[in-house]
Specification:
By secondary structure, the chain is of the alpha+beta class. The protein has helices at about 1-10, 35-45, 100-110, 120-150, 155-170, 175-215; strands at about 15-20, 25, 30, 55-60, 70-80, 80-90. It has two domains: about 1-90, Cytidine Deaminase, domain 2; about 100-215, no CATH class. Strand 5 and strand 6 form a beta hairpin.
């Protein structure tokens, strides 16, 4: 899995490992660390360049959200000899890019949509809204740069670096090539949506048949 992932993301490195858990309720709160966590953590300590991070996903679903916790292991030593490891919780923050946030919003919206209710028109509308939002942000950036160049407003070094980093992260593609790539990707998206809707419908029909035949 790692070798395949690095083919598309060669600059990424392994920083730790994750696991799902049903927290054990204790007098001091809840316990998310399993008995085998230390053994697995030792393995990843040899795979990571730095101390590995253990990410735990709370799958108990006691609330409306899925809690995440992060831990680092600190060895317990007696007279210079390591006897065991103790996990200490560390601060965790979740960040996502604009493209990741859009995908997550679409996934959440699709999960609440009845089977067969999602259509290609809905996907096209969502894509149109995203493009309009992108165009609005580009116009704001262009307007800001024009005002700075004209001397109407003072330049902000931090904003300028952010704009420069954003532009440098985008590959330079000829308009006609971009149009072709965009249209091809749109067709792929619509095809995947169409196939997923067919799959949902077939699963629903299969469940109904099983219920009928089982009676």
């Amino acid at each position: 899995m790692l070798s395949l992932h690095l083919r598309a993301n060669p600059r990424e490195t392994v920083v730790g490992w994750y696991a799902t858990a049903l927290p054990e309720r204790t007098a001091g709160g809840s316990k998310c660390i399993a008995d085998t966590s230390s053994l697995i953590h030792e393995f990843y300590a040899g795979e990571c360049d730095d101390d590995p991070i253990h990410l735990v996903v709370d799958t108990s679903l006691d609330t409306d959200e899925m809690a995440l916790r992060a831990y680092k292991s600190i060895p317990v030593t007696v007279k210079g000899e390591a006897l065991a490891n103790v996990f200490h919780e560390i601060r965790l923050a979740m960040k996502s890019s604009e493209s990741e946030r859009i995908c997550i919003d679409r996934m959440i919206g699709a999960s609440s949509t009845p089977v067969g209710a999602s259509t290609n028109q809905d996907e096209s509308l969502a894509l149109k809204i995203s493009m309009e939002k992108l165009l609005c942000m580009l116009e704001k950036c262009s307007e800001y740069v024009d005002k700075v160049v004209a001397g109407d407003i003072p330049a902000d070094d931090e904003v300028g670096r952010d704009i420069s980093d954003t532009l440098n992260s985008i590959p330079r593609i000829r308009p006609e090539v971009f149009d072709k790539m965009f249209n091809d990707s749109l067709q792929d998206l619509l095809m995947v949506t169409y196939l997923s809707n067919i799959t949902k419908t077939q699963l629903t029909v299969a469940e109904k048949l099983n219920e009928t035949l089982g009676k």
